[in-house]
Write a structure and sequence with these properties.
By secondary structure, chain A is of the alpha/beta class. Helices cover 39% and strands 17% of the residues of chain A. Chain B has two helices and eight strands. The chains are: A alpha/beta, B mainly beta.
Chain lengths: 384, 133
């Protein structure tokens, strides 16, 4: 396998982008990534997208995006793993470059979610669960994570205040990110007073419905060095699956796919989790950030809530988590999310994060992206 | 919106109407919905069994914002329920004061109307949990 580096990054504003079309979102991010890399041609591309069929009535996304990016006839493949689609697109591009099949490969992600109403968006997202045995019964994504939260609260005495602290911290980070959908700070009191969506999760415990796209360009390290870009190397990549239905898991508080994907990525990098300086994790709901940190081995079971409350995961804490603002504040255009996580790690490692968001003395970062209620997860480790 | 092919509704009827599961004849593990291979055993043999209709709430939530087919029914209780056969499944809990739902609550399953697809004139039936007497 060849060593692989990220040589270019680009993303759109995340938000309710009424004036932007599905295709133009992707092309804007992809073109920005190519400009950042200083390349005019790519050899191959991957498009992470969860549900363009339900959101905008469009499939065959690889062809559409290669056409409008003006790079046809390059091979282009749409990658789908629900909300982990973007992270898996990066992984597939990594595999292609590492294998030697191609040199310059684009991995992008996109979702256009605001062309449908709220009930339809809720339905489209719920298709990431078991459609016949969860969705059919009336399960929603906030509902599935709410059931994880109630189980975690019962088992580990996690509180609604601890969950709220995740949202408060991520909004504080997002307030410094010009690409974020929500650049406002919030308080624990506001979270707890906000509308209940699925008990115990309030609306401010939930990531929003977002339009957006993100893209990265990968290349072999020796080519990156010739192009003169600070090469940020991908030193570990892992993916894993778990039961699609939450109810099939013996321990409803444990995300086995996250544990396995992290373990695989760390083994490839020949590192332990304590060797990593910071993380971007999949905080689709506040409880997710806590259960993910536990499954990744950052904290022992049941310890992520108290650690978050004591400030350990803030930008100046022991282990900064979601300096970008996370899905909660930056926004969650599902197919783009995993790519945007990798972009944040690259920016932090290059020293290019905007203003106060820049972390000090960071050399290695980890990105964790997740599909459904944890039915799939992909983890990427990057090093400056 | 949601697919309404009659074959799709029809083939799930044993599971949804009578809670038909299956048991691996080698390990005794019960699967719901029935599986055609068992984890790590491509040649597993199975025997159909009907679930007892009893269960206990393992975790729950109150859905206050519902997906499109259920929009008019919110708020409703949704739970992961474990049956005496050690099967776990997701179901709504009906006929209950939402404040009374909790982990450990005993329930039994009933055959109920779940929702209607007015555009396709299809009524969906299935199991719903209610508090055990």
């Amino acid at each position: 396998m060849r060593d692989v580096a990220v040589i270019g990054v680009g993303m759109t504003q995340f938000g309710e982008l009424w004036e932007q079309s599905y295709r133009n979102l992707f092309v804007e991010a992809a073109a920005a990534a190519m400009r950042d890399a200083g390349v005019e041609k790519i050899d191959s591309m991957y498009v992470g997208c969860m549900s363009s069929g339900l959101f905008v009535g469009q499939e065959h996304v690889g062809s559409l995006m290669a056409d409008y990016l003006g790079v046809a006839p390059v091979p282009a493949v749409r990658v789908e793993s629900a909300c982990a689609s973007g992270g898996v697109a990066v992984r597939q591009a990594f595999i292609e470059v590492a294998s030697g099949m191609a040199d310059v490969v684009l991995a992008g992600g996109v979702e256009k979610m605001t062309d449908v109403d709220g009930a339809m968006a809720t339905y489209a997202l719920a298709t990431a669960a078991d459609a016949e045995y969860e969705g059919f019964q009336g399960a929603t994504f906030p509902g599935l994570y709410a059931m994880i939260a109630n189980a975690h609260m019962k088992k580990y005495k996690t509180t609604s205040e601890m969950l709220a602290q995740v949202a408060v911290k991520n909004h504080e980070n997002g307030s410094l990110n010009p690409f974020a959908q929500f650049q406002n700070r919030i308080t624990v009191k506001q979270v707890l007073a906000s509308t209940m969506i699925a008990d115990p999760l309030h609306i401010l415990d939930c990531s929003p419905v977002t339009d957006g796209a993100a893209a990265v360009i990968l290349a072999p390290v020796e080519l990156a060095e010739r192009l003169g870009k600070p090469p940020i190397r991908i030193i570990g990549s892992g993916m894993a699956t778990d039961t699609i239905a939450l109810h099939s898991r013996r321990d409803l508080t444990w995300l086995s796919a996250v544990e396995a994907a992290t373990k695989r990525a760390l083994e490839m990098a020949k590192l332990k989790i304590k060797d990593i300086d910071f993380a971007e994790v999949h905080d689709c709901f506040t409880i997710a950030e806590l259960t993910v940190l536990e499954a990744m081995g950052v904290y022992k079971r049941g310890h992520a809530g108290p650690a978050t409350k004591s400030g350990e995961t803030k930008r100046d804490g022991r282990f900064p988590v979601n300096p970008s603002g996370g899905l909660k504040s930056k926004g969650h255009p599902v197919g783009a999310t995993g790519v945007a996580q990798v972009i944040e790690i690259v920016k932090q490692l290059r020293g290019e994060a905007e203003g106060e968001r820049q972390l000090k003395n960071v050399k290695r970062g980890i990105a964790q992206n997740m599909g459904g209620s944890g039915g799939s997860s992909v983890v990427t480790i990057l090093e400056a | 919106m949601a697919q309404t092919l009659s074959a799709r509704v029809w083939r799930e009827q044993p599971q949804r109407y009578r809670m038909v599961a299956n048991r691996c004849t080698r390990t005794g593990e019960v699967f719901f919905p029935p599986r055609i291979v068992a984890p790590g055993m491509l040649d597993a043999q199975f025997k159909d069994v009907e679930l007892s209709g009893e269960g206990k709430v393992v975790t729950f939530t109150i859905i206050r914002v519902a997906p499109a087919p259920y929009s008019d029914l919110a708020p409703y209780a949704l739970a992961v329920i474990e049956t005496p056969e050690k099967v776990r499944l997701t179901a709504q809990i009906g006929d209950v004061d939402l404040d009374q739902v909790g982990i450990g609550m005993k329930v039994r399953f009933e055959f109920r109307r779940l929702y209607e697809d007015n555009a396709a004139s299809v009524i969906y039936y299935g199991y719903k949990a209610v508090p055990a007497a």
